[in-house]
User: Fold this.
Amino acid sequence: MRRAAGPPNLALLGERLETLRREWRSRRLDSDPLVFAHRYADPADREVVAFVSASLAFGRVASIQASVARVLAVLGQRPAAFLDAWDERPIPSLKHFVHRWVTGEDIEEFLRMVKRARHAHGSLGALFAKGDEKTADFVPALSAFLRNLQLLSPRTTSPSCGLRFLLPSPAAGSACKRQHLFLRWMIRTEGFDLGLWTGGRFTPVRLLLPMDTHVHRIARTLGLTRRPTADLAAAREATGWLRRLKPEDPVAYDWPLSRLGILGLPMTLPAARA
Assistant:
């Protein structure tokens, strides 16, 4: 793929993205970690499972699915109820868990934070809303949410590498792709997204495109960003162009664009140049 030489032709880009969106609507849920949340009916379980799944969504698809499945096997058929009743003692079956640089101890501490957040606020959505000051996008609220989660851990002052990776900070300029992916699942109601967080400040208008290396490469090809790295600035730049196409739902095209990267498919959407 060649990077677009200039800004996108919005009319042409919109037409082609709509074609992609229709083509990929309701297809290949099996290729995404969101597939796990769809196996549960209770919204509380879906929220917990989605947060675990999104947080571990790095690496090869098969590796992600295997690691998420291993954690969910521990949580059982009712993950939220398991956490609520958990005495926070070490979980033997996670002792040898490793997903890249995330260890079983990291996952246990991560689950402790989720448990404590649910106990204190009722849900992860309620904790997120507490730190949301209704800025243009969700970045400040996401920073507050992740910081408040970390404060629920006794390892706050010396978190491991794995924990820091599971709960990164947008304040450092990171695109925080996995966290924005989780927000997309929670807030959008179209397609496979779960739409669990609704009303008030929870609106798709404020979502950012979840930006990883694959989506960044495609975005550069389409002229959506000129940023050389997949950082927060690139995510905001690309979302800005998409917002001009779909002001009420700028990340509506994330599903088809991310399928191209995840499935390693050839780019069939030519650059829409000015």
User: Anything to note?
Assistant: Confidence is low (pLDDT under 50) at residues 270-274. The two ends are 17 Å apart (CA to CA).
